[in-house]
Design goal:
399 residues, FAD/NAD(P)-binding domain, D-Amino Acid Oxidase, Chain A, domain 2, 2 domains, eight-stranded mixed β-sheet, 28% strand
Amino acid sequence: MKKYDVLVIGGGLVGCASAYYLAKRGANVLLAEKNDINSLASGQNAGSLHFQLEHRLMEQGDALTKQFSRIIPLNCLAAELWRNLEDELGESVDVVMKGGFMVAMNNDEVTLLKKKYALEHNHGMDTQLLTAEEARQIAPYLSKKIQAAAYFPQEGHANPRLVTPAYARAAIKQGVRIQSHCEVLQLNKNAHKWRVSLKIDHSGHREDIEANMVLNAAGAWAGHCALLAAIHLPVSPQALTMSVTESTHTFMPHLLQRAGAKLSMKQVSAGNILIGGGWPARFRYKQGHPDLTQRPTIIMENVFQNLGLAAELVPVVEQLHLLRCWTGIVGVIEDQLPLLGEVPGFPGYYVATGGSGFTLGPAYANLISELMITGATDHDISLYNPGRFGHLNSPEEAI
Ligand SMILES: Cc1cc2nc3c(=O)[nH]c(=O)nc-3n(C[C@H](O)[C@H](O)[C@H](O)COP(=O)(O)OP(=O)(O)OC[C@H]3O[C@@H](n4cnc5c(N)ncnc54)[C@H](O)[C@@H]3O)c2cc1C
């Protein structure tokens, strides 16, 4: 039986980046991916690198917004990692960090921006609060209807089709075994080792391996994967929609978000405008449950609303043809914060998932690898400890 220091479950951004950093720290790593590398959320997302407090973290009242703002130091760490990522990986992944606006279109949104600004500054993030005129001086393509904007110079975007494969290549160079079409079927704790059964599709054969540690980086499937070790994690799959317009002349170098509505926009290097912001799609159902093996279906009404918001903020968009819409599945944690750390009562079982996992993926991977190899992290990650859901688990259930 082959033996590894770490089994990583999942070949999305979090899994591939974690495998890379773990191997760089000297670990012997197997990464098992059920499908192809980067075939799910990590390759389907909007590619926004948003470090300002997101709309979804500000829509549930002041008390929760204040609580969520404790994520800001993690966002700042993520910004630093993205700035240096292409040097780290030795190739271009289309990282563009030319600044991002969160725009207010009415008085309520201006109030939200002011509260957000205060919270961000409390946590050391130097967001700028701009008048409409100041914002339009930097971004003349913005609608004359905007009331104000928060600006963070390091926001931007990267290409989701490039980032994870680049991490996978870098991981392989560090000696990681990456096995695609390889499903983790079973996990048993045996003394201090994890005994793992894998199903390898293309040959149809099974392989058993042993690992000292397991990292669950299975995204929306992290809850399901945790159950293989009799661990309960509150990860819910959520279906989201994206749209892209035809290509046009380059005019929009910034990431755009709206303070009080679901909207994100950016222009990619080919000239197309990507439009999203968290609008739901509809799961297909199988035997009464969402079928996570199939792409969710598009809800046209949501696409219309999303495009309407985009055209309201950037009027030029109204002239562009819609090229394509698509859907993807993301994992959402019950309390909206990331899950990052070792699961209490299950020594050697780690999880890294949740939140805005494209923006934060490199940071999760960096931190979890540091924790797994050294036993601690420089950056405080106690807020994201899976132990906050300890009530869902009793260690004696471990198999
Ligand atoms: C439409 C959309 C837009 C988004 N936009 C943004 C954005 O702009 N910015 C941002 O920060 N975030 C965004 N997100 C969220 C972001 O994409 C995800 O948080 C992130 O990609 C999660 O990465 P991951 O590696 O954890 O998961 P995934 O990329 O989903 O990878 C998990 C992998 O685990 C594998 N797996 C599952 N079970 C098993 C098993 N038993 N054995 C082996 N492998 C298994 C799956 O096949 C999958 O490949 C968006 C998400 C969607 C869907």
